[in-house]
Every structure is written in C-alpha cells, then in structure tokens.
Design a protein that fits this description.
The protein is mostly helical. It is 57% helix and 0% strand.
Amino acid sequence: MNENLQPDGLDGFKLSSKLNIDYSRGMLNQLLSLNYTKDEYVLFINEPKHMINPVRDIILFDTPFLEFFSKTQWYTIPIVWMPIVFYHLVQTEVGILATLGCVIMGLLFWTLSEYLLHRFFFHGEEIWLPADNKIVFVFHFLVHGIHHAFPQDRYRLVFPILPGILLLTGLYLPILNIITPLWMCAGVKAGVALGYILYDMIHYFIHHSSPKRGYFKFIKMYHMQHHYKNGELGYGVSSKFWDIIFRTELKF
C-alpha cells in the first residue's frame, strides 16, 4: 500500500514523498525501476516512515537468500571485531602506558573519521550524488539513505561485516603511512577498531532504548534532532565534539 494514503501520524506528520513503494516487496528493484528525480529521492529518504506507520522491518531483496544476508544483528559487531582489537593489542610489543596512549590516539582518529564520513559521504546528497543516476541513488540508499528513511529498522542499523572490513581497511591505510615508529601502529589500529565498535553499539542503543539520565540521554536527544529536525547538522553520533569544532552543532 502506498504510505501516502495513510492517516496523519505523530504530531500530525504527513509524508510528502510521492514514490509509490510497495513495502511488501523488495525495495531495491523498485528503486531501480521507478521514475523519480534526485529531489524526489532526497525527499523520500529524509521522511522517517515510522512517523506514519508502525515500526516494521523492510524488505530489500525479493530473493530470501539475499534478503537474509542484507540483515545484521547488533551483537555480531562485538563478536566479530573485539578479537581484532585484542589481536592488535597483542601486536603492540610495548608497555601498558604506551599502548594505552596509542589506543587513545586511535579512538580520537575514529571520532574524526566518524564525523567526516557521516557529513561528507553518508550525507553526500549535494556533494557526490548525481542529478540522474538510479544506480548511484540505490548505492546511497544502501549506505545511509535507508537509515534516515527507516531509522528504527533493527536489522539495518549497524554496519554489515563486509562493508565494515572495507571501512576499517581504508582507515588503516593512513595510519600505516603516517604514524611512525611502526610499533605505534598496532595500538592505534586497536583504538580505531574499538572506536568503531563503540560507535555502532552507541548508535544502536540510542535508537532502541530510552535512557533516563546522563550522557546517553543527551546523545540520544542530540541524534534524534539530526534525524527529525535538521539532517544538515549534528553529524557526530558517539559525541558532538567535532560538531563543535567544525560549527555544525545542533542547538535544542
């Protein structure tokens, strides 16, 4: 059913998007076959659908085999990546304090990477998204558009394992080329991998929990403002530090 036919949602919210998506079928084939403009695509992804309809899990592929591998449970992230963190820590071959310093460097490097990726790659609608190319639209949808259109989809909130491998491999390259001496690299890579795990866990937590106080309550409110008020500000997810530095902080 076309969601545009649904009644008003929370606070009278109405969907403006005219994309006639059948949510009982795979979305990717429909996004490749429907006729729509870049502006219509951007409008579609920036309207959270559960403001009208109950939260539900969407279907990406019509083939059950592909659909199964398009989903990622949150707990697979620490299961897969914590052994990588420990592997890097074993490789450091230096004292505890030196290793701790390197890990902190890696964590800081991750927070900057998180901000830059979110701002310039995930939200690259006005930077690298072409005016008319549905294949690129679908790629962007898989990368981040799906999350803004369906922010409560529990199986497509954390990064799938293969893209995560590509992401961290890409982040490791500047570490290997810039940081000397080499004994520091393993500790920094451990910090980057740990930062990635914390980012995915915090992101999942603030979407699927209701913290009552403290830092997590604040960061949930901050991130929800990014989703529901202004997607062009508030690119930090695990913290707003770099939003302050680069003047993209959300005020609420």
